[in-house]
């Protein structure tokens, strides 16, 4: 097979600092996915409510936005290694407290909400800072390859983490699952601790309103960056049915926690595969068009996933009466294939969006723009959780809880395609974006 088709490993071989950070981020992210899956299942067990599960993400939206924006300002003023270490410590402490409460039996829905909020806010600072660091570690030429390697990280941690999380919860319970995340996250500290000092290059601004306004003025002069942010919000708002997965596993497709983990993991399988064979993807110059086509494919397959759930609710291709011990195996497999395709499409879009942002934005302001990027990437799914959970809850009155699960992805996928097409047609410069002659 041509090496041009396969993943470019030069960022790992040419930058030991990036390699250590990449390994630490992969293992730490794997543990984080165990906790995310466990918290979703735990909340559903405590409340029996899909809406309560969706509110885990929604409740953390405002703190995450504040943390992402302020964290970006910190990364553009202080040593970025120090900022990332401090935020990672906060993330680790909240996970450790979650494990202690689970072991002692003092956990409840309020604690799950509170610790998830703090954890996601701190993690948004870690993510924004690491992304601002990457171009300095690998150089401009290897930014697309580094973005593809980050797709491998996401693929590994989401592919293994949710499935393993579902199995661990089913076999050993929540305390052990949370504790494993506490242990795995220690590897992230090794990757961050061994980094060199990385202060921003160029004129910087002290964190505060002036720094935020400076970043906003830059973004106003960068229409292509704004469009990619907007497109990602559209995709993640209407095409992210993650909050429905516990109910889908319990009453739509059957199989319980294991099915929930498999559905989340299927998305990551697609992301992993698209990164593994990302040689030609990374070499493609027209990133605006690449983002557009990837998001359109994402929307189409999300709608197909909704149709699969509708078939399950109608009792097709499997048992009509499903449950934890009676899964609808044929439709679970088809649903996983759909989610693998959405994961691949989303990862291709992410490679181009990260490359565009990291290549075109000056280092002195990169932290703030990466902060906005993290707000968009993590905030969109939270709004999407509200959309999916709210619509499913509203529709359950006339479709039933099992029947209402198919409506958010079907309608949302169609909206993603329609809105994306309209936005890009109104902004032809974005569609014509050329990485060899980038225009903000």
From TrEMBL:
Gene3D superfamilies documented for this protein: MFS general substrate transporter like domains (1.20.1250.20)
SUPFAM superfamilies in the record: MFS general substrate transporter (SSF103473)
Membrane-spanning ranges: 21-44, 50-71, 83-105, 111-133, 145-172, 178-196, 229-252, 258-277, 297-317, 329-352, 372-399, 405-424
Any one GO MF annotation of this record: transmembrane transporter activity
Localization per Swiss-Prot or TrEMBL: Cell inner membrane
Annotated ranges, domain Major facilitator superfamily (MFS) profile: 167-440
Assigned keywords, A-Z: Cell membrane, Membrane, Transmembrane, Transmembrane helix, Transport
Membrane topology: Multi-pass membrane protein
CC terms in the record's Gene Ontology section: plasma membrane
Keyword Cell membrane: yes
Name used for this protein in its record: MFS transporter
Organism, as annotated: Microbacterium barkeri
């Amino acid at each position: 097979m041509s090496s041009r088709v396969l993943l470019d490993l030069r960022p790992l071989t040419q930058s030991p600092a990036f390699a250590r950070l990449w390994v630490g981020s992969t293992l730490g992210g794997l543990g984080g996915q165990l906790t995310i899956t466990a918290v979703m299942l735990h909340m559903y067990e405590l409340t029996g409510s899909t809406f309560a599960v969706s509110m885990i993400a929604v409740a953390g939206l405002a703190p995450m936005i504040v943390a992402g924006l302020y964290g970006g300002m910190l990364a553009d003023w202080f040593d970025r290694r120090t900022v990332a270490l401090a935020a990672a410590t906060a993330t680790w402490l909240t996970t450790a407290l979650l494990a202690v409460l689970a072991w002692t039996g003092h956990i409840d829905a309020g604690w799950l909400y509170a610790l998830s909020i703090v954890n996601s806010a701190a993690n948004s600072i870690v993510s924004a800072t690491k992304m601002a660091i990457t171009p300095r570690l690998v150089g401009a030429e290897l930014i697309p390859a580094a973005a593809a390697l980050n797709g491998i990280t996401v693929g590994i941690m989401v592919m293994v983490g949710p499935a393993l999380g579902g199995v661990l919860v089913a076999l050993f319970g929540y305390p052990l699952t949370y504790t494993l995340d506490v242990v795995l996250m220690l590897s992230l500290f090794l990757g961050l601790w061994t980094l060199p000092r990385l202060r921003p290059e160029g004129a910087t601004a002290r964190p505060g309103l002036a720094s935020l306004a400076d970043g906003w003025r830059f973004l106003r002069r960068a229409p292509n960056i704004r469009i990619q942010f907007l497109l990602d919000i559209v995709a993640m708002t209407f095409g992210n049915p993650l909050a429905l997965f516990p109910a889908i596993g319990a009453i739509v497709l059957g199989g319980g926690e294991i099915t929930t983990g498999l559905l989340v993991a299927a998305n990551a399988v697609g992301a992993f595969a698209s990164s593994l064979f990302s040689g030609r993807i990374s070499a493609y110059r027209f990133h605006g068009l690449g983002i557009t086509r990837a998001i359109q494919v994402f929307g189409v397959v999300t709608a197909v996933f909704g149709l699969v759930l509708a078939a399950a609710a109608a009792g097709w291709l499997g048992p009509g009466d499903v449950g934890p011990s009676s899964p609808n195996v044929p439709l679970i497999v088809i649903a996983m294939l759909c989610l693998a395709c959405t994961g691949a499409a989303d990862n291709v879009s992410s490679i181009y969006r990260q490359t565009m942002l990291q290549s075109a934005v000056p280092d002195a302001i990169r932290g703030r723009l990466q902060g906005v990027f993290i707000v968009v990437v993590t905030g969109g799914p939270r709004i999407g959780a509200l959309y999916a959970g709210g619509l499913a809850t509203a529709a359950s009155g006339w479709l039933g809880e099992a029947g209402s699960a198919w409506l958010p992805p079907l309608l949302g996928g169609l909206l993603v395609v329609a809105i994306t097409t309209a936005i890009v047609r109104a902004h032809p410069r974005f569609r014509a974006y050329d990485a060899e002659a980038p225009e903000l």
